[in-house]
Amino acid sequence: QVQLVESGGGLVQPGGSLTLSCVVYGFTLDDYTVGWLRQAPGKQREWVAHISRGGSTNYAASVKGRFTLSRDNAKNTVYLQMNSLKPEDTAVYYCNAASLSRNYWGQGTQVTVSS
Q1: What is the DSSP string of the chain?
Q2: Is the pLDDT of residue 75 over 90?
Q3: pLDDT tens for residues 9-49?
């Protein structure tokens, strides 16, 4: 059964850090480009970052320099290290895995940045 399971969300103060994890089941991670997207209340879902099959990464301008994406193919896991968090980073974060013919989503994990 194909499944993406996110974890690591929570409440953090501005300037703090969190690491999100996305574990995939039912397919081989290294065949896919994996990304994170987020959706804040009342806003459209927006792309945050992605990592290609070859390991190259791309980031939205709003998170570049603060967020780092990495993957461990042996563990079928992708990590999003988030530093210097801001209130505007508050959102539900979704993991996505895509190939030419498949597109999978996780259930999301809530990140709240507030003092």
Answers
A1: --EEEEE--EEE-TT--EEEEEEEESS-GGGSEEEEEEE-TTS--EEEEEE-TTS-EEE-TTTTTTEEEEEEGGGTEEEEEE-S--GGG-EEEEEEEE-SS-EEE---EEEEE--
A2: yes
A3: 999 999 999 999 999 999 888 889 999 999 999 999 999 99
